Amino acid sequence: xxxxxxxxxxxxxxxxxxxxxxxxxxxxxxxxxxxxxxxxxxxxxxxxxxxxxxxxxxxxxxxxxxxxxxxxxxxxxxxxxxxxxxxxxxxxxxxxxxxxxxxxxxxxxxxxxxxxxxxxxxxxxxxxxxxxxxxxxxxxxxxxxxxxxxxxxxxxxxxxxxxxxxxxxxxxxxxxxxxxxxxxxxxxxxxxxxxxxxxxxxxxxxxxxxxxxxxxxxxxxxxxxxxxxxxxxxxxxxxxxxxxxxxxxxxxxxxxxxxxxxxxxxxxxxxxxxxxxxxxxxxxxxxxxxxxxxxxxxxxxxxxxxxxxxxxxxxxxxxxxxxxxxxxxxxxxxxxxxxxxxxxxxxxxxxxxxxxxxxxxxxxxxxxxxxxxxxxxxxxxxxxxxxxxxxxxxxxxxxxxxxxxxxxxxxxxxxxxxxxxxxxxxxxxxxxxxxxxxxxxxxxxxxxxxxxxxxxxxxxxxxxxxxxxxxxxxxxxxxxxxx
Length: 483
Ligand code: TXE
Fold this sequence. Notes:
The termini are far apart. 40% of the residues lie in helices and 22% in strands. By secondary structure, it is an alpha/beta fold. Strand 12, helix 9 (266-278) and strand 13 form a beta-alpha-beta unit. The protein is globular. The chain has a seven-stranded mixed sheet with strand order 14-15-16-13-12-18-19, with helices on both faces. It has a six-stranded mixed sheet with strand order 9-8-7-10-11-21, sandwiched between helices.
C-alpha cells in the first residue's frame, strides 16, 4: 500500500478527483515542502457521496452484523499487514516521529476497527417486562447516512474512531479527514476496496473544512454528525446542525489540569508528566497543559522537569533518537509562537524552550519548536485559559486540595484531568469533584476502548467509545407489545 502524489476522493467505491478537477497542496511539515496534492472538493462532491451512501444503506444495514464484522475485520487486517507504510505516510503527513505512528497511531486505528467490528456481533438491546401486561423490547437501528469529520493531530486514529462504530452499527458514511493530514484516510479507502466493502458504504471526500465539512453538516440527508476538532468549529457545526435536529457528537478542545500531590510516586510521575505534556508536540486534546504541583515539592519538580524537557530531542521524524518531530503546519507553529509571546506579556517566565529551531539538510525548512515550560502565571490569564495545542505547559504551585481543585476546574474546558497521589481516598475525592469527562489517577492516556470518552463544558457534547458510540450511531425504538 503506497501513498500517491495525487490523493483521490473515495466515492461509490471508486477513487476519483474532485468534480472541479482542482487540487490543494499537501505539505510535509518536517520538510516544509509540498509533497502531494488532495482534491479541492465542494458541495457537488458531497452531494454525489451522499447519494452513493443512500443507495448503499439498505443492503449494508440489512446484511447482518456477522457480514459487516467480516468486512470490517478484513480492513483492520489490511492496516496491520501494511503497518510500516501507513506509519511512514502518517509521519510524512503530520511531522510526528515514525516511532509514534508505528506504536500508537496505526495500531490504534487497527484496534478501533477491530474493536467495533467485534462489538457489533455482541451488541444486544434491552427488554423491559411489565409483568402480566406487556413486554417492551428496544430496537437499536442504524440511522442512515452519517457524517464523520476528523482533525489532523491523530489522523487515522481519530478518523477510524468515528467511522468504525458508524459502519459497524449499519450506517453508511460520508467522511472528511483534515485537509492538513489526508494521506492515511486515502490509504484506508484503498484498504476498504481491497476488503470487499460494497460501493458507497464509506465515502471519503477530501478538501477544506468550510467547503466540504460544512456541506456535509448542512446536507439534509446526513442524519448525524460526529466531529472532533476546535471548539470554534464545533460551535459553527452545532449552529447548523441543531435546528435541523441532527444527532451531534462533538469532541472539542481541552485545557487539561495535571495535579501533582507531594505524596505521589515522584519517579513515575515525572516520566508520565513529560509524556502527558509533550507527546505529539502537545498536539493531543488530552495532553495536560496546566501542571499544578504541591508547594513542598514544587522546586524539586521544577528542576527535574525542566532538565528532562531540555533533554528531549527535537528533529527528524524518521530518526530513531527523535522525541518530538515538527509541528503540523506553519500556521500552527505561528499560532503556538504567538501564545508564547502572550505568555511573556502576561508576566510568565519561560524556563526553557519556546524557540524556533533551525534544522539542517532535508528538514531545513520544517516547522520545529523547542518544548516550553512557563511559570509565574495566574490561573485566570489567557495562557492558562485558552487551548494552545502545542509543546507548551505552565507550572503553578498549590497548597491545599481545595485550591488545586478550584484552579483545575477554573476554565471553560472539561476534557480530562490527571491526579498524582498515593492516597486513594484523596484520589477518589478529587476524581469525584473534577469537572472532566476523563480522570486519570497515577497514569495518563491509559485507554480501554470500552470506556466513555469525551468532555464536559466547552470540551464537547456526547461521548464516544464502547457502547456509547454504538448508541450514538443507532436510533432507539421501543416496541411495547401487550399480552
Ligand atoms: O481545527 P478545525 P484546526 C484545536 C486546537 C487547534 C484548533 C484549530 O486548539 O489549534 O482546534 O485547529 C473541519 N464545518 N484542535 O483549525 O478547523 C476541518 O477541515 C465543518 C483540537 O485545524 O476544527 C477538519 O477536518 N467542518 C482538536 C476538522 O474540521 C469544518 C484537534 C477539524 O479542524 C469546518 C484539532 C466547518 N465550518 C484541533 N471548518 C482535538 N480536540 O483533538 C473546519 N472543519
